[in-house]
Write a structure and sequence with these properties.
The protein has one domain: Lipocalin. The protein contains no helices and eight strands. The mean pLDDT is about 85.
Length: about 100
Amino acid sequence: MKLSQIDGSIRCLAYDSEFIAIGMARGKVRLIQSDLLQYDLISHTFDNHKNDVRDIKFYDGESNQKSKKLMISVSYDGSIVVVSLMEMQKVLKLNLNNVNHQIK
């Protein structure tokens, strides 16, 4: 898919030196690799939320001496999704609407 063909409302945007992530209405995250931007191409689309994406962050870390790059997205549906950018797949999904919040 081409970047110029994005339909729907953009809700948020995050970028770093390697990626640009666009949070969309209806729960999609469009990911663009920076080196493909000149070709107007979207690298991946993740459809892991049921409602609008409200924020996206990138995280660089290490696990067992392996570099780990993650993308974390949050939605108005109460879900938090963690995607491994090394494997380009979801590694964790939390739904905070199912958590019982009690303050004593």
